[in-house]
């Protein structure tokens, strides 16, 4: 049985402002109706696949659970990394966890933010690689290049230039991200593939690979898995041994040193959406190469991407060529298409000046739903809040602020002190400073309300929690 191991703990700064540290690109709907994470999981379900094992971090655990529920997938496990330590520790932790449950397991490791339009072709490539995997090889999947890309690493095949049929081939070496001339030379040679960061191996073989080439990772990672704690359906890896593990990729730790390597070429279409130029390429544009998303319009423009993420915000381009323009409620990006890889510099610049837009998404996702700030001023803040059916905020109080809730849609069960009441549409309730209170949605539809805060301090850290169904502190 092949266990999909989905890695979804990273943040894609090159897709700022849509992708940010608090809500990265894998959870966004960039090219279709499903998020990249959901599409990745669905691509690796069906005959021959076990339920997926998910690797993520604590901040994203409830987003992962919510998005899996939306597509009807019950995971084998969701492992919570205490902190990001790169791909080698994450893969090792998954292999150690699987070893205890199915020593004969095969594991297919895949990032959660890739686009693969032809899922059937990809699954066929996985089955082709299974033959080499069951013979003891560590299998990687190489993408047929269609341009001299400098943003990817490459895989050099031993022979068979120009042959991209999905069958196991011997791998000569890994190549670091090249300069433009080297990339053009490799494209012309025909025996180089993009390194997609997708792997298939038996649990016993990858563990031997770690024993042979990265033994220093084993002790602490094993301890972290052994001491892991169950938490609301998640498995939290133990933080103390995890903190001692080296931050290293699977390529550097194992793959570049191993001799039992095979690569399966894949020619079915692929993108890691590593920049807005990639989103433009993967989207369906008009005859002039214009890709419009959301409330966007273009006049006398070509080969550009215009995207609005706010239904109340129109973006209009006039006379544009090779331009990226992304409008969010709190930030706008305008860049030349050739500078798509430099978008991460915008994040660095904003972080240096202390701008919250660098990392904080305007909509703050919580296990019970989400909220967003509509207006913020001296001593007041207005928020829009959505609570999922059956969900509840913690029983809490505030030291510095009072709150006034107005229900817009749905029904709320509100606790203030010892009083519990139902508040329906167009009704409101007041929560004085220091009062213990809780908001719940007892209904079958989403609850929407407007919250007006007033006080001397309005930060999210002004919360004293007494009870919480999500075990937050």
Structural features, described:
- The protein has eleven helices and 28 strands.
- It has 473 residues and is α/β, with parallel strands linked by helices.
- The chain has three domains: 2-266, Alpha-Beta Complex (Spore Coat Polysaccharide Biosynthesis Protein SpsA, Chain A), CATH 3.90.550; 276-352, no CATH class; 363-467, Sandwich (Jelly Rolls).
- Strand 16 and strand 17 (332-336) form a beta hairpin.
- Helix 3 (87-99) crosses helix 6 (203-213) and helix 3 crosses helix 7.
- The relative contact order is 0.11.
Features:
single chain; 473 residues; alpha/beta; Spore Coat Polysaccharide Biosynthesis Protein SpsA, Chain A; Jelly Rolls; 3 domains; 6-stranded antiparallel β-sheet; 5-stranded mixed beta barrel; 11 helices; 28 strands; globular
What is the domain total for the residues?
3
* CATH arch. level architecture of the largest domain: Alpha-Beta Complex
Say what the CATH topology of the largest domain is. Answer: Spore Coat Polysaccharide Biosynthesis Protein SpsA, Chain A
Mean pLDDT over the full residue set: 94
CATH class of the largest domain equals Alpha Beta
Secondary structure category:
alpha/beta
Any idea what the shape is? globular
Q: How helix-rich are the residues, as a percent range?
A: 10-25%
Please count the beta strands (DSSP E, at least 2 residues each): 28
Our Rg estimate from Cα atoms comes to 24 Å
Task: List low-confidence stretches.
Answer: none
Q: Kindly, what is the distance between the CA atoms of the first and last residues, rounded to a whole number of angstroms?
A: 39 Å
Walk across the major sheet and give the strand order: 18-19-20-27-22-25
The total count of helices amounts to 11
Largest β-sheet summary: 6 strands, antiparallel
Which superfamily, in CATH terms, is the homologous superfamily of the largest domain? Answer: Spore Coat Polysaccharide Biosynthesis Protein SpsA, Chain A
Content of β-strand: 25-35%
């Amino acid at each position: 049985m092949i266990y999909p191991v989905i890695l979804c703990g990273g943040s894609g700064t090159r897709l700022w402002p849509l992708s940010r540290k608090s809500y990265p690109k894998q959870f966004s709907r960039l090219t279709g109706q499903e998020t990249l994470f959901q599409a990745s999981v669905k691509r690796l379900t069906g005959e021959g696949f076990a339920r997926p094992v998910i690797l993520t971090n604590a901040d994203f655990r409830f987003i992962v659970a919510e998005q899996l529920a939306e597509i009807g997938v019950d995971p084998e496990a969701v492992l919570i990394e205490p902190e990001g330590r790169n791909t080698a520790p994450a893969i090792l932790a998954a292999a150690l966890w699987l070893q205890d449950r199915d020593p004969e397991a095969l594991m297919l490791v895949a990032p959660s933010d890739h686009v693969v339009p032809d899922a059937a072709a990809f699954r066929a490539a996985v089955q082709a690689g299974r033959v080499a995997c069951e013979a003891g090889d560590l299998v990687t999947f190489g993408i047929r290049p269609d341009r001299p890309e400098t943003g990817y690493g490459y895989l050099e095949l031993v022979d068979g230039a120009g042959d991209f049929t999905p069958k196991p081939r011997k791998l000569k070496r890994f190549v670091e991200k090249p300069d433009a001339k080297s990339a053009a030379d490799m494209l012309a040679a025909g025996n180089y593939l993009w390194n997609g960061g997708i792997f298939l191996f038996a649990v016993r073989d990858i563990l031997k690979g770690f024993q042979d080439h990265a033994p220093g990772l084993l002790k602490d990672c094993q301890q972290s898995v052994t001491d892991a704690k169950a938490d609301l359906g998640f498995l939290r890896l133990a933080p103390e041994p995890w903190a001692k593990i080296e931050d290293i990729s699977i390529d550097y730790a194992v793959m570049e040193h191993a001799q039992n390597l095979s690569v399966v070429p894949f020619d079915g279409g692929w993108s890691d959406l590593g920049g807005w130029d990639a989103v433009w390429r993967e989207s369906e544009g008009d005859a002039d190469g214009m890709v419009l998303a959301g409330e966007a319009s273009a006049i006398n423009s070509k080969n550009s991407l215009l995207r609005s993420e706010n239904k109340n915000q129109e973006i209009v381009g006039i006379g544009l060529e090779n331009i990226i323009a992304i409008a969010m409620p709190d930030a706008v990006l305008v860049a030349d298409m050739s500078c798509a890889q430099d978008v991460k510099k915008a994040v660095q610049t904003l972080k240096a000046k202390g701008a919250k837009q660098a990392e904080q998404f305007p909509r703050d996702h919580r296990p019970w739903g989400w909220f967003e700030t509509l207006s913020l001023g001296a001593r007041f803040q207005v928020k829009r809040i959505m609570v999922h059916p059956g969900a509840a905020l913690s029983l809490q109080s505030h030291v510095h602020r009072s709150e006034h809730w107005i229900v817009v849609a749905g029904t709320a069960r509100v606790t203030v002190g010892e009083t519990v009441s139902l508040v329906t549409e167009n009704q409101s309730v007041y929560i004085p400073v220091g009062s213990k209170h809780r908001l719940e949605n007892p209904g079958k539809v989403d609850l929407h309300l407007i919250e007006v805060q007033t006080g001397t301090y309005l930060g999210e850290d002004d919360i004293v929690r007494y009870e919480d169904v999500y075990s937050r502190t």
